[in-house]
Amino acid sequence: VYRSYRARIAVLLVVLVVTGCAKQKSISRDELRSQLKEIHATAFEAMLFLGQVRGHKITSTFAAAHIHYLHETNQEVVSDLSGSSLQSGPEVVLAESHASAEELSKILRGLASSIDKPAMIENATKRLDEIAQHTQQLEASF
Amino acid sequence: LKKLLGITLGIMTALGGFVDLGQIVFTSQAGALFGYHLLWAIVFGTIAIIVYMEMCGRVAVVAQEPVFSVVRTRLGTKLGLITLVASNLLNLLTCAAELGGIAIGLHLLMGWPERAALVGAALGLVILIFLCRFQWIERFFGLSGLLMCVFAMSAYCLHPDWSNLINGISPLWHPAGQKSGVLYAYFAVGIFSAMLMEYEVHFYSSGAMEEDWKPKDLGENFMVASLGSLLGSVLTIAIMALGVMLFLPRGIFPQQLSTAIFAGSFPFGQKGLILAILGCLACIGGAAVETALSGAYNLCQFFNWAWGKNMPAKSVPAFTAAWMGMLLVALVIAISGVRPLQLVNISIIFGMAIMPLTYYPILRAAADKKLMGEYVNSKVVTAIGMFFLLTIVVAAIAAFPLMILTHSGRP
After folding, report:
1. What is the mean pLDDT of each run of 10 residues along chain B (411 residues)?
2. Which ipTM did the prediction report?
3. Do the Cβ atoms of B357 and B79 come closer than 8 Å?
4. Among B156, B203, B234, B385, which residue is least crowded by beta carbons within 10 Å?
5. What's the pTM value of the predicted model, to 2 decimals?
6. At a CB cut-off of 8 Å and minimum separation 6, what does B87 contact?
7. B178 CB near a chain A CB, below 8 Å?
8. Which residues of A touch B254 (CB under 8 A)?
């Protein structure tokens, strides 16, 4: 009886640990709003910065490093949003926020390696603008 | 010329304190969130630091007692020891953050990998401090820190709204909504704290003794404290103005040193950008040196060990080992991968929480007729000092709750 009691406790502990680890992160509406703000702030900052790059006001070393830092900042948002669930409110907003953050990461990653290509900058600026507008709308609708 | 160069102590102290890594990013965030509405916190902090810097310089010169000796005699050994441990922990965190900031600056300037830049920066500072006399250290960082003027020029060229800027001096405005109110309070406390960081007065009073000031130099003491702090204040306002003009209208929340730097040279070309990076490197480097030396000064002054940068290293072994140790441990913390801006956020709030323990003994000593004789505080200066001390106590109590409530200032 004693051994079966210990075995049951052990099984219960394993189940608790596994379910605890597998549990989805849940974020509040306020936290999601804060993440949305961060996404469009990063997109707007990247646009402002690319304007400076186009005006030849930024050295290439600085440009590559700054874009890399922006990418790092955005990656934090991506990892905070991935695998999360919303405590209350429409899940679709969370999914769209996550997609926007990933899209932003993709653009910044691409820019870091080709910051000296004007066509690439032009294209990236348009896409950044779209992301910024979209996430601003999401925030407003939320 | 010697008298003119004497001002560099005030400039280095103030730039290393006001315009360090944390303050550069923090102030531009405050501008991006609240416009000029937190300008009063800069003005308030500037007056407070001038009053206390002058007081601790005067105590050091007249009583021949640097700040940490004052702390020990006024607070008693137990509370003094707690202050020593807390202050040096703060110095260590700040020094680690500043080393990280130098590595970022070198990465932006030269493209060197950050870790290699970190080790190189720490090694460079050890060599510089070891080889140079105190006066040359303060001249090097004080004068090269003047390159930060490019930030002020950048703000001026972008045509700030002067009437809005001047209205910011009034602390009567408050944001609508509870969340914004708490965030506003967090930034007000943070700006005030960053301007009064303890290491500034520790470094300044020890510097006055390193330079062998005498009571006849007390006029110079006030001038050095005022001019250095006013310059630091103008540059801090310029950084806030750049945040207001460039980031606020676009909804940008600057989170990187590089963001503040490109704002600092926004209207100019690549040469302006390089000057802005060099200016930041000088100020952040100055802050790293200030914190490392302050840690050594605090330790030696508390235990009454021989100290002095102008003494041969062999005759002050504890002092030499202490500042080298500070830089080494700070390097280990910085290289462990903790983000410099995270560290600096913690150190600003932690610094605020323990601030009364530094400023109370200074006020008591400067108002002590027996100790100071004819150089004792006037009643007006004591009253002003008391007012700022009360403000420091209130801000110290509010600091940690505000940090938790705002998730370290996240909008």
Report:
1. 69 77 92 96 95 93 87 88 94 96 97 95 96 91 92 97 95 84 94 91 90 86 87 95 97 94 95 97 95 96 92 94 97 93 88 92 93 94 97 94 90 81
2. 0.89
3. yes
4. B156
5. 0.90
6. B198, B199, B202, B294, B298, B354, B357, B358
7. no
8. 45
